[in-house]
Amino acid sequence: MTLFELVKQNICVPDAAEHYELQVNRNGMCSCPFHEDQHPSMKLNERYFYCFGCGATGDVIDFVARLFGLNSYEAAQKLAQDFGIDPDKPPAAIALPKPERPLLKAYRQEEVRCLQVLCDYLYLLEGWKQNYAPSNPDDSLDDRFVEACQMLDYVEYLADLLIAAELEQRVKIVEMLNKDGLIAGLEERLDRLKKEDDAHEKQSAA
Ligand SMILES: [Zn+2]
């Protein structure tokens, strides 16, 4: 990676502007240092700046080059130095435009969904265990009570892990729950039960 690429990848325009004591407002606008600017008329994006007053534009290196009257290479060097970037040893991301991480985001959503479904199911099972427990030993067992007895501990265990385990383990659980549409099936079933329940309530109310 060249010094130019390294600098551009690691330092965004607003951060550079602020580092050199320009005031950037919440909309990413600042007073243009390249013309007599009464109101902030320069827009700073992560990668580019553009002045609506004088038309100055460019990337973070152009910005610093112009600000300090340097050529591009000197400007890149200055940025690297001021932001502690060692060209021989690329640093962990400092002050940079956040990379998009679609995979992580998708995973997070999936994890949240799994946990939600497990908690709903857990709640249901707890209710069943209480409400459908046999009142005397000779009663035949209600299916819901049986399911609650069989599943409660396991579901609770999974939900606990999803809340507290290390990422690696959580990823495995989410993977397992999604395998063969397990969680989707459970979600559907819970939905159906809830609708039946609502309908039943409406009926009893009527
Ligand atoms: Zn300007």
Automatic annotation (TrEMBL):
Residue intervals of the Zinc finger CHC2-type domain: 29-80
Example GO BP: DNA replication, synthesis of primer
Source superkingdom: Bacteria
Entry's Gene Ontology molecular function annotations: DNA binding; DNA-directed RNA polymerase activity; zinc ion binding
GO CC entries: cytoplasm
Keywords recorded for this protein, A-Z: Coiled coil, Metal-binding, Zinc, Zinc-finger
Name this polypeptide is given: Zinc finger CHC2-type domain-containing protein
Residues forming coiled coils: 176-203
Keyword Coiled coil set for record: yes
